[in-house]
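ok so i was messing around last nite and threw this chain in just to see what happens. nothing serious, just curious
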Amino acid sequence: MIEEDKIFMSVVIPLYNEEESLRELSAQLERELTLLCGELWEVIFIDDGSKDHSYQVIKEIHNANRKFKAIQFRKNLGKAAALQAGFNDAKGEFIATMDSDLQDDPAELVNMLAKMNEGYDLVSGWKKIRHDPKLTKNLPSKLFNWATSKVAGVKLHDFNCGLKLYRKEVAKSLDVYGEMHRYLPAFANLGGFRVTEVAVTHHPRKYGKSKYGLSRFINGYLDLLTVIFTTKYAKSPLHFFGLIGTVISMIGFVIDLVLFIQWCMHLTALSNRPIAYLGLGMIVIGIQFISMGLIGEWILKSNIKEHKNDLVIKEKLRD
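result:
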């Protein structure tokens, strides 16, 4: 049971240069959240270093209704940092996230909450009917979501949908860094929380243009490797490194063994044989390249909790 002085739902909204959509979005949110939560709600805008007048518009919204709050970054830190700041600041028993471009519909929150009450901890939106360019978003998204579902062990059609609803304990437990925001349902599932999805309305973009290009899908697949290595192998990295090292070492050993046998039989000389150096170099170069990348990811993940509050915040608007 939620006490009267507590927040029932917080809505975290990262944004960058979205001044045209904010007033309309805030009106939609005020209407829908009042119907859903009465007075027990808050909206936290995270201005990710906008260059336009987004923060001035947010100030006007805040002055008209103090349930609208804000965090302003001094510079653009990315969506993951914005979500982390919002999760840190949110007071609600349920924490929703959504995009600021009016493509996500706040009216869907009631359906997502109903789904969560079936016993789930995270409900992700599924943009079943999308209004995005097919070549640059729809087709790459299908491949991306299929691969992520296989790795994470939870089948979702749309991992990257901005509209999500979390129980407080889920949102507070997640470490969001780099570009890992797209994998939050995967991390939650791997952390033992129950994850599902519901189909949601997806509106065409009304103002401006998308801030994301095809490069984010390339980065997404690289980040998917990070998800594998920092979750599945986080507690037993030797299972991964040992397997890779053994395979490479065996190949190098077989190469050098064949050359050694040939040398013993006086069939060949070992000097000036590039393949001999290849056998030795495979294990060194292979392990160096893989280890540098993965150890770097482990260091980043192990330190993220220490820097969870180390965000370059310029100003906050609270009560």
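not much to say yet. Residues 274-304 form the longest helix (31 residues).
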